[in-house]
Amino acid sequence: MSERRSRPGTGEGSRIAATLPDLGVVAVGGAVGSLARHLLSIAIGSSGDFPLAIFVINVCGAFLLGLLVEVVAQAGGEGGRWRTTRLLLGTGALGGFTTYSLLAADLAELLLDGAFGVAALYAVLTLVLGGAASWCGVLAGRMIGPSSARGAER
């Protein structure tokens, strides 16, 4: 029988206490991201059968998340302020901004309406362009991140 060891300060009580501030940071970011999504949806407006607003939001969000992940990783990543930045902007704001649930609901509605071609186009474009946007975000993060600045100083 193996014994489970934990580091000091990592017991159940300390995990809950450490999580409470994180939850607040994520909640604030999520509120800001959700509001931004709603306002951008209003600004883009209706575009007929194709759910353009959510498509644009998800692709832009994928780019921004790729950028954020790369910049945070280059900056040293997981500790202190960078962890809070990742929770606030990544999990919170971009998690609230982008929306898988609305993508799924839009796809279901298109399929129920018999718009199979539009649904397929929406699904494929979201996945392909979202992946490409995320990749571009990572590349942009490499160009502007702390590591590239250190390399330029040499």
TrEMBL record:
The keyword Cytoplasm does not apply. It is a multi-pass membrane protein. It is found in: Cell membrane. The keyword Transferase does not apply. It holds the Pfam family CRCB. It catalyses: fluoride(in) = fluoride(out). This is Fluoride-specific ion channel FluC. It comes from Leucobacter muris.
